[in-house]
Structure to design on (488 residues):
């Protein structure tokens, strides 16, 4: 086996008689060697086998590793095989996971880190393993280095596995080390916690302060990724004005050099945080820029087109001095068609809300469900109330806010248009009642468009048991929204 490894290292040709002879000899002896020799061969030679097209030897090696997995008796072997071989054999990876759970008590922090990174690299969300790793990280007095903390945060974020106790531990141990972290470390941590929807205010304030102190060491790409993370969590630093002044100063000469998709993401994120500038709006709303997304058929274009519509809405609703350009109506309608063509399945809460409103109103003429606005946001339900706060049949009323405007009659004097928005568990930061940035922007846009927004959060809705309670709840929320509007 050592000879075979040496021949692979020498990069002999595939048809070398010497190489093929040694490979054949190894194949004959695989059944009789100890398991640690199989692991040695896997660890040192599998990449070369793949390059040398040694498929028969590789197939037999994987077969014997899988059949004799019960011979594994140490942590290093588990980690090595997961890292080197796991992606090549699904049955073997399953056996290794079982063996990991059996030997979990013996794993140290470095072993746990390697297992987590292996799972993340294979995008393998094995819940039993992740729970076991989380338990040992939380219960044992491990000393975690900064690199370990960053890698654990990355792996949890990549696998989208939520474990509050671990996140608190990672944030608490990272906080004192922020001042000595590199820009790359800061960027990776902020992205990881953003993926997890975990906003630890002291930690993110430290990230923002570190960026202010060492702005020159951050590349435009790193700075852009931090803005994306802040926008996802709707995080506004305490020194917001100073922070974003520096951001604009650094990004202004470099924004056009970023990839087009990243340009859209950055400008959209600045819209979420209410920090976008008119020049940035003009840069992505001009036809020369946005036509590259609408004229091509890449899968990610649907998301980018939606963000362009949101940016367009920000320009229309929140920047009265902005003079253009705007997205053409045909462009917006194309983006809406993309959005509609992949509409998601109705959730139980959404269905429940519609059923309650139909029963309460007694007529579907007085409500619209699931309509998309020209601002790129979907309304769960929409009502028009008269001066006495009674729902009106709305079919013939003008609805200029919809993606496909309808009706011909203006609203009666004193009438109000209400939009019901349900907020489900994924719409919030983890362990919080604070909405994620994109949904905060959705509320803001609809309110700026003249609609009264009635929020229906999941944590209030789930406490209601009967249909009568849910109907009374919706009426009460509607009444409070109207009263707040009158008070203004």
């Amino acid at each position: 086996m050592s000879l075979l490894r040496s021949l692979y290292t020498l990069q002999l040709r595939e048809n070398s008689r010497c190489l093929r002879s040694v490979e054949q000899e190894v194949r004959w002896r695989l059944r009789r060697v100890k398991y640690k020799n199989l692991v040695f061969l896997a660890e040192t030679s599998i990449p070369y086998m793949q390059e040398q097209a040694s498929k028969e030897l590789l197939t037999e090696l994987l077969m014997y590793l899988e059949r004799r997995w019960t011979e594994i008796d140490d942590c290093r072997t588990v980690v090595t095989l997961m890292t080197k071989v796991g992606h090549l054999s699904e049955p073997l990876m399953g056996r290794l996971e079982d063996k990991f759970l059996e030997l979990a008590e013996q794993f140290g922090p470095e072993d746990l880190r390697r297992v987590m990174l292996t799972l993340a690299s294979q995008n393998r969300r094995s819940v039993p393993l992740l729970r076991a790793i989380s338990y040992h990280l939380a219960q044992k007095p491990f000393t975690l280095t900064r690199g370990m903390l960053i890698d654990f945060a990355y792996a949890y974020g990549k696998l989208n596995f939520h474990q509050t106790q671990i996140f608190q531990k990672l944030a608490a141990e990272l906080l004192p080390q922020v001042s000595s972290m590199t820009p790359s470390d800061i960027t990776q941590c902020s992205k990881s916690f953003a993926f997890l929807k975990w906003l630890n205010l002291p930690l993110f304030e430290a990230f923002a302060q570190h960026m202010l102190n060492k702005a020159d060491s951050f590349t435009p790409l790193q700075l852009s990724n931090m803005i994306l993370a802040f926008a996802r969590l709707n995080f506004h630093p305490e020194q917001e004005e100073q922070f974003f002044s520096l951001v604009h100063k650094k990004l202004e000469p470099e924004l056009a050099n970023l990839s087009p998709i990243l340009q859209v993401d950055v400008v959209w994120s600045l819209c979420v945080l209410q920090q976008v500038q008119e020049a940035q709006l003009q840069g992505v709303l001009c036809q020369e820029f946005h036509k590259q997304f609408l004229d091509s058929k890449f899968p990610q274009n649907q998301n980018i087109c939606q963000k362009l519509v949101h940016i367009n809405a920000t320009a229309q609703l929140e920047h009265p001095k902005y003079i253009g350009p705007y997205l053409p109506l045909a462009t917006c309608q194309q983006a809406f068609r993309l959005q509609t063509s992949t509409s998601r399945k109705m959730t139980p809460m959404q269905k429940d809300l519609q059923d309650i409103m139909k029963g309460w109103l007694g007529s579907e003429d007085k409500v619209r469900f699931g309509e998309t606005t020209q601002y790129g946001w979907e309304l769960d339900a929409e009502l028009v109330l008269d001066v006495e706060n009674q729902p009106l049949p709305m079919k013939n009323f003008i609805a200029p806010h919809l993606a496909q405007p309808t009706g011909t009659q203006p609203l009666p004097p004193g009438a109000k248009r209400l939009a019901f928005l349900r907020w489900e568990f994924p719409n919030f930061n983890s362990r919080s009642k604070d909405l994620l940035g994109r949904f905060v922007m959705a509320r803001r846009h609809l309110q700026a468009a003249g609609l009264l927004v009635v929020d229906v959060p999941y944590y209030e809705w789930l406490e209601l048991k009967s249909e009568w309670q849910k109907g009374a709840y919706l009426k009460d929320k509607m009444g409070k929204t109207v009263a707040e509007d009158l008070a203004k």
User: Anything to note?
Assistant: The longest helix spans residues 467-487. The chain has a mean pLDDT of 91. The beta strands are 368-372, 378-385, 416-423, 452-457.
